[in-house]
Structure formats: C-alpha cells, structure tokens
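pinning this so it doesn't scroll away 📌
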Amino acid sequence: MKRPPATLALHLGAHKTGTSHLQAALSLNAASLAAVGALAPPLTEIRREATRLLGAEPDGARAWLLGLARTDAARIVISDENLPGRLAAVARGGRLYPALARRLAPFAEWPGPVEVHLTLRSYETFWPAIWLETLLHRAAAPWAAFAAGVAPERARWPELVSRIERRFPGAQMVLWAYEGYREGWRDRFQRLTGGAVATLAPPETVRPSLPAPAAEELDRLAASEPDRVRARARALRRAAPAGPPFRPFAEAEARRLASLYAADLETLAARHPALHGAACAAKDRASLP
C-alpha cells in the first residue's frame, strides 16, 4: 500500500520569538523526533538548500523539498525565521515580511498536508529586540532613528497571518504568543513535532537580546561611530552582560503598543480559537508598569 504523503510542519518564526531556542531543542532531540516518525533538517542545511535560494534560485529549494518528501518520515519539520524574509526586511518597519508570498512559493507546493507555525510577540518588546538584533549584523542607526521608521499600524500580526493563509490555502495555522515561552516551550516543541517529547533542554537563553545597559552603550555608539557598532555588539553578546531588559518606549507609547497587541490577539483568537499562550500574553500585558 502506498504510504500517505508526509506532513510538512513549517515553523516561520517570527524573528526574536524563541526560534533559536526551539531550533536548538530540535537538534538536541533528534532521537525523540525519530521515535514519532518526524525529521527535522538542521538549520545549516535549511539555509544552504532553501533559504539562500529563495530569491534567485527557487528551483533549487523545490528540488530539496522534493527529496524530503520522498523520505520515509511521516512528518518533516522545517524551522527558519529567515524563510519568509530576512531580518533587514523586518527592520525597515513597514509590512512584516513583504516578500513572503514569493519566498514561500516552493513550500506551498508541498504534496501533502501543511501546518504553518508562527509565534507572535507584543509590539513594545518586539521592536526593541529587532533593533538589537540588527546591531549584530551591520552598522545601524540609533534607536530613535530606527523607531521613527517603525509603523506599528502597518506592521501587525493579523495582516501577516492573512497573507500566510493566502499563500497556504487549506493549511492548518498554529499560532503562539511569545509571552510565556520559557514556561511552555516543551508544549510548543511537542505540537511542532507531532508528539515528540523534548527530553533534552537547550540552555535557557540561546540567543538572548542584550540588556538595557549594553543597549544604551550601543545606542550612543551608533550616534557617534556607527561603523564600530557591529563589532562592539558582538563583543557584548559574547560577554553575556547582565541587566534589566531594554525597554526604550515611553510609558504611554508602550501601553498603546501593548493595547494594539491585545486587540490583535483577540482578532486572531476569534479566527483561530487554539491560539496558544494568549492568556499568558494578556496577563503579561496587564502587568506593564
């Protein structure tokens, strides 16, 4: 009897929503995945065979996916936050992942069932985390200049989810709220993998954002010597400095952004009743100072 086609579980991030930690868990628990018939290609392979090809050579990505579809796995788990678009596209502050439809076209051709997994994060913490991540990759503008280019009314989760749904008609959307990730990551892992149990845990912080003192130092450096920012940011990351999280938005703006996020979670929960972690997100937003 011909076996049914494998399910593709496509984890698209978003950036700065626990993706590196979850990818580390996938790598550590390959034996647990195999026990439930799941296969998760390593991130290095995904980026070499798919992510880097999605602009000019999508047929290469299609060929790689076809090879995965021919394996004996019942479930293929692909996790890379750069698949819908690179960090630079997010950092521009307009629509989230504007090239998503074109970049994900090869994945939409998967011959079996598709699940799309996406994690959402409150805007007042998401944008500072994105800014800090950009500092690790290139010379960057100071926070105030970056924030001035962010348009929260345009860059919102419901609009992104709608575009993903149009790209993958009929796919199952699995949405998570980032808040509460540390407590609930094992549940996310199990849901993504189709039942595998994460017996081995990555370090609590795999790719953490820099704390406020380090961010403030980099902000000053970006204003005076932007070409030095990248090297200094990487040095600070290696040093793993301690401190409170970077929260640059004024209180009124932070509350406004938190309210936008809460409204967007409500909108999405109405369309996707199994939006995971929404209660944790609401509790965290209510506790804002």
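📌 and the second one:
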Amino acid sequence: MTSNRIDYNNCIRALRLPFVMASVLPYIFGALSAYAFFSFVPFFLGLIAVASTHLSANLLNDYADSRSGLDWQDLHHYGFFGGSKLIQEHILSEKDYLYLSLSLGGVATVSVILLSLLFKSIEPVLYFILIILTGWSYSARPFQFSYRGLGEIVVFILFGPVPVMGGYYLQTQVFPDVKSFILSLPFGFFTAAVLFANEIPDYPEDIRSGKKNWVYYSGHEKAYLLYLLLMICAFISIGSCWFLHYCGSMALGCFFLIFPIMKAARILKFDYQNKIRLMTSSKITIIVHTVAGLILILDSLIDG
C-alpha cells in the first residue's frame, strides 16, 4: 500500500462496492425465477462468485484506466464516474489494485470450483472462465472492449443475461433457457443505461484518451436520446415479461420509475457539460436500476 490512510471508506471507494448491486440483484432474481427448484448451497456459492467477480473487474478497471492515462486527466473524485481516484491521490498504487483484483478473482474461482464439485460437472468452471476474462477485458488489454465501442454491449451481457441466466442455471442446471433470457433483458438495459449515464460526464477525457464508447459516436449533446432509448427498451422488456406471464402484475410497478428517468434525461440534455449536475442523473439512474430490481425480485417471490 502506498499510504497508511487506508480506512473503511476508502475500501468501499476502491471496490466501488455500491455498484455490486448491479450484479447481485439480477443474480438473486434469476435464482428466484426457478423458485420451485431453489437450493441454498449453490445459491450462496454463486452469490460469492458473482460479487467477487464483479468487484475484481471494478478494481481491474481502475488499474487499466490509470495505466492508459484516462483517470489522470481529471483528478476530482465524483463518486459515480471517472474512477475511484485512490491511485491518483496516492492512497493506493496500480499494483495494489492489480493484486486486489486477482485476489478477488481467486475467491470467485474457489467458489466456482466448489460448484463444479457439487454438480459433478466442469460446466460452471468453463462458463466462469469466459465470464471473468470478458469482465477483465472491459478495460484491460489486449481487448479493451470499452475503448472499442463494445463496452456497453459487454455490460449488457454481463449484468443482464449472465447473472439472471446464471442464477437460474445454478438452481436448475438448465442452460440456455429462453424464459430466463427474456427475464434478463430489463436488467441488461437498465445497467447499460447506468453505464451510459456515467460515460457522458467523462466524454472530454474519453475523447482525449481515444476511448470510443457510444457517447463518442452519439456526441454528448444528443446522448440523452440514446439514454432514453435504453430505458424504453428496459420497460418494453418488463411489459413483454408480463405479457408472456413470466412475471406478475407487481412488475408493472416499475413503470412509475419513468418519472425520475425523465428528470435524469432532462439533466443529460441540458447540463451535459456540468459534471456536478450530472452526478444527479447518475444517482437517479442507479436508484432506478436498484428499485426496479427489488420490485422484480419481490414480484418473483410473490408470483413464484
């Protein structure tokens, strides 16, 4: 460690711990969607694997964005975007982030190996290898998906189909499954919208670093339109799940979240160059994702 100022708050900040809900909630939802088959041991091991993999990817993301120079362009810590900045504040080093990332990856690996032993199948290990390598490759070389216009697609997959279908698979050992895939779509779109809202404030730094995400192609003036499109797709997905009887009427309560979304979109439209104001749109989007996830989980408990 580069400093003795490591405390609880800095640990949370380094891990970007609140964002772990983006993977944990869809995983819980996926497991509960197979409620008739629910088994606690694979659920618990899967939960450890999901959370550890996500946190490992968070840490490697900061490591990679520091190495590329991206996070050194704006040294202010905003909380929702731009990285944790603990490297830039010389509280942790790049090496610290790398070691912590690999350690959490090790925790996830142990959990997945135990799952494979429990199921007497190599499948969980094979799926896990593909998932964690994709997560690490979001920012890290050689693929750097987030720098090549593929980051949003990767996030959609890793925080939609992967945790929901993964949770379902660990309860039923069925993969692929059409129902769990369709149920995963709202989470994928909501998480992609969170990422996109967080990319808009970083637009100037991303341009200078050659990071070509979707905001690069849309321009930050028109980015709010793509944000709204992602949200519309999320609500269409929820409506489709209800129409297909994959979820109950409680899920339709998510539609009340349209009102805060409109507020966030307004900020993205008129204040796209004001990072302080954009913190509000990011916060709203994260809250919407979390509340929608909780509503869908509660619906699966009641309707399941």
